[in-house]
């Protein structure tokens, strides 16, 4: 019995010595001396590695700013107590990292468009911004993107995100091994891929052009922008250009490639960043009809020219001469305000120069290019008329008439004092299809074509404008005044065969300045 006690005491002493040795070796970091000597179950498990010892993500080889910030702001912190289950340890953690997508991805696109829009607004000409295909210059895009990215990188804390993870450690061969470490290092999107996502297929941002109200002419049109063709496909392709789409917007075109164009006639077009004008000819009730569809970027591009640029001058000119004086893309005969008649209310450069509201319908053109009507017989005093002109931002007026269409309603009268509405003469009209979207019309006879050797009455002319969807339309002076001039060339056949000198024209001009 005594021997058994001595043996137990020796075992206890040995166990104490072994425990002390293990404690010493553990505290001194020399446990590996016993690895391979004692089985694992006799050895105590070491603590989990400190989170601070986890490797930080390596910066990309390119050492771009995104990769450096991704490494700098990456961190892991405990989010709760570790749970042990035999050889498995579960450590909840919070992973903090840079949200590269928010910093330079989808959110960047809108910011980039805003910055580009600011640069477009400051540009004097589109060639400062766009190449020949209407795409932003690559160098401009890269500079704008990098500037935005630098601004955002100055406050990267705003773009940090956190994720909750549970790290799984497995005890093997005397050490805790992390099984799901890859979850700590989500891949950083490539910087170039983020750039591409922000810059690909950016919309065309049109420059805003306008012509000073007191200018006596529009900007000189770019000769390279004129197109003359018999092939409608050429025009259809032109309408796919970004500057054309920006001008057209959601409007529906009257022009289309299936129009029965008069054989042998040209389709004429001019397109720059401020104006789209298409001129064509087609049969209309046995007459030669010349239509012009125009989109402008600003109301200042619908303009009026009177002889000598002052009221009541007798120095009349032909429409073609007026067109050259004004750099007109498209010009057409106006109301022939200075004729042997006193009709309507005449406004020139915002000043009322004639007041006969009872005798004719008047069309007022506002600074935004809208068409407002004052019907003959409306009770209005001269002072009230002056107030109306100011309140409605009227720049000039047309005094011939009558009104054909008002707010989509056919309002053509059966009888009217001016223009022999029921007789057969060449007719002219200005129509509004939508904001900054116009249709002009001359209907004449072409004596060289028997099938088009007829003239319309005003009802026929109004029907042509109604059929083409005009929201508003107004009758201009017809007969030999009914002229359409494009690229300084008379397009339509003129009644009685020759242009006559007239007192005024209406014209559309480019607002893009010469470089």
Count up the helices: 11
Nearest-integer average pLDDT: 88
**What oligomeric state is this?**
single chain
Output the radius of gyration.
41 Å
Unreliable stretches (pLDDT < 50, length at least 5) are none
Structure description:
It is a single chain. A 9-stranded antiparallel sheet has the order 6-7-8-9-20-19-21-17-18, covered by helices on one side. The termini are far apart. The longest helix is centred in the N-terminal third of the chain and has 26 residues, at 2-27. With 515 residues, it is α+β, with helices and mostly antiparallel strands. The protein has helices at residues 2-27, 65-72, 100-104, 106-122, 138-153, 191-199, 232-238, 242-248, 319-326, 382-391, 458-467; strands at residues 75-78, 83-85, 88-98, 160-172, 175-178, 226-229, 267-271, 275-284, 287-296, 302-306, 330-333, 344-348, 351-356, 362-366, 371-374, 394-399, 403-406, 409-410, 427-434, 437-444, 472-476, 484-486, 489-490, 504-508. The chain has 2 domains: 33-204, no CATH class; 223-508, no CATH class. The radius of gyration is 41 Å and the shape is rod-shaped.
Secondary-structure blueprint:
Blueprint lengths: L1 H26 L37 H8 L2 E4 L4 E3 L2 E11 L1 H5 L1 H17 L15 H16 L6 E13 L2 E4 L12 H9 L26 E4 L2 H7 L3 H7 L18 E5 L3 E10 L2 E10 L5 E5 L12 H8 L3 E4 L10 E5 L2 E6 L5 E5 L4 E4 L7 H10 L2 E6 L3 E4 L2 E2 L16 E8 L2 E8 L13 H10 L4 E5 L7 E3 L2 E2 L13 E5 L7
Antiparallel strand pairs: 1-3, 2-3, 3-4, 4-5, 6-7, 7-8, 8-9, 9-20, 10-24, 11-22, 11-24, 12-13, 14-15, 14-16, 17-18, 17-21, 19-20, 19-21, 22-23
Helix pairs in contact: 4-5, 4-6
């Amino acid at each position: 019995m005594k021997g058994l006690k001595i043996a137990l005491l020796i075992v206890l002493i040995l166990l104490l010595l072994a425990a002390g040795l293990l404690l010493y070796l553990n505290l001194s970091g020399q446990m590996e001396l016993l690895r391979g000597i004692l089985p694992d179950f006799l050895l105590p498990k070491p603590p989990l590695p400190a989170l601070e010892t986890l490797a930080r993500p390596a910066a990309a080889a390119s050492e771009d700013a995104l990769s450096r910030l991704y490494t700098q702001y990456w961190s892991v912190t405990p989010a709760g107590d570790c749970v042990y289950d035999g050889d498995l340890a579960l450590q909840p953690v919070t992973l903090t990292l840079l949200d590269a997508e928010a910093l330079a991805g989808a959110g960047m696109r809108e910011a980039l468009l805003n910055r580009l829009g600011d640069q477009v607004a400051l540009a004097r000409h589109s060639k400062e911004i766009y190449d020949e295909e209407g795409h932003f210059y690559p160098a401009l895009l890269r500079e704008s993107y990098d500037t935005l990215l630098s601004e955002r990188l100055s406050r990267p804390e705003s773009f940090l995100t956190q994720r909750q993870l549970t790290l799984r450690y497995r005890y093997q061969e005397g050490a805790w091994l992390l099984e799901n470490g890859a979850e700590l290092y989500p891949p950083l999107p490539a910087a170039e891929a983020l750039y591409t996502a922000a810059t690909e297929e950016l919309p065309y941002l049109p420059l805003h052009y306008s012509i000073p109200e007191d200018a006596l002419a529009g900007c000189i049109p770019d000769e390279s922008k004129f197109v003359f063709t018999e092939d409608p496909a050429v025009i259809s392709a032109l309408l796919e250009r970004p500057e054309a789409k920006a001008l057209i917007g959601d409007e529906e075109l009257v022009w289309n490639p299936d129009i029965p164009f008069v054989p042998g006639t040209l389709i004429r077009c001019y397109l720059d960043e401020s104006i789209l004008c298409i001129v064509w000819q087609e049969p209309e009730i046995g007459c030669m009809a010349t239509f012009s569809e125009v989109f402008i970027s600003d109301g200042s591009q619908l303009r009026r020219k009177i002889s000598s640029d002052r009221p009541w001058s007798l120095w009349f000119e032909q429409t073609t001469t007026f067109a050259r004086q004004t750099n007109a893309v498209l010009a057409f005969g106006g109301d022939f305000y200075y004729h042997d008649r006193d009709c309507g209310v005449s406004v020139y450069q915002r000043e009322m120069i004639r007041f006969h509201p009872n005798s004719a319908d008047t069309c007022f053109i506002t600074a935004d290019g809208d068409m407002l009507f004052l019907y003959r017989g409306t009770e209005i005093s001269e002072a009230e008329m002056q107030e109306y002109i100011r309140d409605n931002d009227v720049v000039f007026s047309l005094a011939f008439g009558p009104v054909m269409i008002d707010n989509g309603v056919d309002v053509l009268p059966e009888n009217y004092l001016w223009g022999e509405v029921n007789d057969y003469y060449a007719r002219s009209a200005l129509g509004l299809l939508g904001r900054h979207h116009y249709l002009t019309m001359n209907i004449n006879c072409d004596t060289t074509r028997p099938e088009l050797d007829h003239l319309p009455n005003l009802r026929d002319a109004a029907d042509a404008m109604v059929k083409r969807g005009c929201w508003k339309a107004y009758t201009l002076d017809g007969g030999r005044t009914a002229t359409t001039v494009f690229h300084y060339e008379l397009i339509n056949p003129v009644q009685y065969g020759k242009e006559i000198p007239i007192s005024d024209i209406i014209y559309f001009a480019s607002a893009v300045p010469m470089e």
